[in-house]
Amino acid sequence: MHVLILGGTTEARRLAELLHGTPGLVVTTSLAGRVASPRLPPGEVRVGGFGGAEALTAWLRERRVGVVVDATHPFAGTMSRHAARAAATARVPLLALRRPGWRPGEGDDWHGAGSAEEAAALLPALGRRVFLTTGRMGLAAFAELDDLWFLVRSVDPPEGPCPARARILLDRGPFTLDGERELLRRHGVDVLVTKDSGGAATAPKLTAAREAGLPVVVIRRPAPPEGVPVTPTPEGAAQWVTEQRGRGPAR
Ligand code: NAP
User: Fold this and answer.
1) From the CB of 160, is ligand 1 less than 6 Å away?
2) Which of 9, 102, 210, 250 is 20 to 30 Å from the Cα of 69, by its Cα?
3) Which atom of ligand 1 is nearest to the CA of 135?
4) Do 123 and 136 have their domain in common?
């Protein structure tokens, strides 16, 4: 059975590791190609967009894909919508692998935002020195905030409009609590902006912000596609794939 993992996350890589070498399974991980040198999973890897939901449908049929696991990042909403449409049309079972979102704890001062634009609108009332950890895409929403200073952390250099007063820090998680405490201190950060990505690798910044008494603007996740079953762990997804074995290829 051919398994397609839509990847780009730690969980996707873990799932490929769990499935790799299982007799009777061929595993392909698909990456968007956004990161210059991604950490590659075992098994086959393809890179680049499919060209939309219809093209993905054709891809599933041509490659006789038996099951799809959408293990993309919780904020990769377009890919998840395309996957849901393509899998339904090609009649291929689809599972979403989504790490749970973060929850505020005692002492947290979180401010929810529905989008990067909403987050930008909240900032002037919350601080002047911003630690912006929303990734290199979507910085345009903050580009007009000339009175604020930004520490922008991303894996690859940002493209497109960026805040005028910004220091770019290229780094990739996992991050440590000590490292995050030190960053906040060294740069005099007084507010943090993050997506609700969930997971342990980038969570220490939230603890560091809580300890320092800093407000945190948390951008909420897009809604997942309706009707697609969700599991929170790679192990759960591997179990689901195993249960689907024996099904025929896509028609
Ligand atoms: P997106 O906005 O949902 O997707 C835009 C387009 O990129 C899709 O329509 C698709 O192109 C292509 N694409 C996305 N994921 C793909 C995949 N796994 N394989 C092949 N094509 C893919 O996605 P995004 O937010 O830009 O994220 C891109 C990738 O980075 C995803 O793999 C995601 O898991 C990873 N990532 C995203 C974030 C984030 O915050 N958004 C954070 C960490 C990692 P076509 O329509 O041409 O098929």
Assistant:
1) no
2) 102
3) 40
4) yes
The verdict on 140 and 120 lying in the same domain is yes
C-beta of 96 in contact with ligand 1 (< 6 A): no
Nearest CA to ligand 1 atom 31: 8
DSSP for 183-230 reads HHHHTT--EEEEE---SSTTTHHHHHHHHTT-EEEEEPPPPPPTT--E
Task: Please give the pLDDT value at position 113.
Answer: 98
Q: Which domain holds residue 72?
A: 2-100+223-243
How far is CA 46 from each of CA 7, 30, 31, 233, rounded to the nearest angstrom? 10, 5, 6, 23
Run means of pLDDT, 10 residues per run, the chain, 251 residues: 96 97 96 91 97 98 98 96 98 97 96 97 98 92 97 93 96 96 98 96 97 98 92 97 72 42
What's this model's pTM, rounded to 2 decimal places?
0.91
State if residue 6 touches ligand 1 by the CB under 6 angstroms criterion.
Answer: yes
Binding site membership of 30 for ligand 1 (Cβ less than 6 Å): yes
**CA 220/CA 81 separation, integer angstroms:** 17
Ligand 1 atom 27 nearest Cα? 76
The pLDDT of residue 250 is 44
Domain count, the chain: 2
Q: Give the pLDDT confidence score for residue 223 in this predicted structure.
A: 87
Question: Residue 189 belongs to a domain with what CATH number?
Answer: 3.40.50.720
Query: Do 50 and 118 sit in the same domain of this protein?
Result: no
